[in-house]
Amino acid sequence: MTSTAAHAIPTLNADQAELDKFSALASRWWDPDSEFKPLHAINPLRLDWIDDLSGGLKGKRVLDVGCGGGILAESMARLGADVTGIDLAERSLKIARLHSLESGIAVNYQVISVEQLAAEAPASFDTVTCMEMLEHVPDPGSVVQACATLVKPGGMVFFSTLNRNLKSFVHAIVGAEYILRMLPRGTHQHSSFIRPSELAQSARRSGLDLQQLAGMEYNPLTDHYWLSSDASVNYLMATRRPLA
């Protein structure tokens, strides 16, 4: 972006169509039988994985980037973490705040980009999570860099996204959106999916060390999710910011 202003405003790393898409569904975030049913189903898996690799979330300061309606953020707070959740979809955050009031589980929700927060509060969090978000932003590398900036030395940064290959197109788009109708059509764009090697490279460039890669699988016949070594469709990546 070019500007003749003395202090140019950086371009916001967000796709308005993506924000509108999730804002339109905001009222259904906490309905376990809604379009967000898959997130409710996988949340215990990813929560246990994050808690284990973080050495326990209790008492730690945690940031959830792209928190949406707060499903993961609230569950981490329930474990005793001091959680901040950020998102640019204001309607989703309104639902998150309302549910936090109803549940009595305190989470600090803020409408702010991860890049802006990184500029304001570097090295402020023990653990940073960025789940199911990278495939929805124009510049995922910018998000990775901001997450690396926000975590304290020695802290963990967790990502989850979708691999880009023929299998992921068949399973995540054709299967999930058109055949099983688990997600609204148009939820994902296959060209925005990210290969594990690409995410790992982005993490290394941002100063993060890869710790663990895990795949997430689903059996539609049993409606069962589990973690495995197969990262060909959905996968999670754990990284760590070195102490020095």
From TrEMBL:
The broad enzyme category this protein falls into is transferase
Tell me the GO BP annotations in alphabetical order: methylation
Q: What is the originating organism of this protein?
A: Corticimicrobacter populi
EC number(s) given by UniProt = 2.1.1.222, 2.1.1.64
Q: What GO molecular functions are on record for this protein? A: 2-polyprenyl-6-hydroxyphenol methylase activity; 3-demethylubiquinol 3-O-methyltransferase activity; polyprenyldihydroxybenzoate methyltransferase activity
Do you know which InterPro entries this protein is assigned to?
SAM-dependent_MTases_sf, UbiG_MeTrfase
Q: Which named protein is this?
A: Ubiquinone biosynthesis O-methyltransferase
Function in brief: O-methyltransferase that catalyzes the 2 O-methylation steps in the ubiquinone biosynthetic pathway.
Q: Which protein family is named in the record?
A: Belongs to the methyltransferase superfamily. UbiG/COQ3 family.
Show the taxonomic lineage.
Bacteria, Pseudomonadati, Pseudomonadota, Betaproteobacteria, Burkholderiales
- List the transmembrane segments: none
List the keywords (alphabetical).
Methyltransferase, S-adenosyl-L-methionine, Transferase, Ubiquinone biosynthesis
| Record carries keyword Endoplasmic reticulum | no
- Which PANTHER family does the protein's record reference? METHYLTRANSFERASE, UBIQUINONE BIOSYNTHESIS O-METHYLTRANSFERASE, MITOCHONDRIAL
What SUPFAM superfamilies is this protein classified in?
A: S-adenosyl-L-methionine-dependent methyltransferases
The UniProt catalytic activity note for this protein reads:
a 3-(all-trans-polyprenyl)benzene-1,2-diol + S-adenosyl-L-methionine = a 2-methoxy-6-(all-trans-polyprenyl)phenol + S-adenosyl-L-homocysteine + H(+); a 3-demethylubiquinol + S-adenosyl-L-methionine = a ubiquinol + S-adenosyl-L-homocysteine + H(+)
Q: Which residues form the signal peptide?
A: none
User: Is Methyltransferase set as a keyword in this record?
Assistant: yes
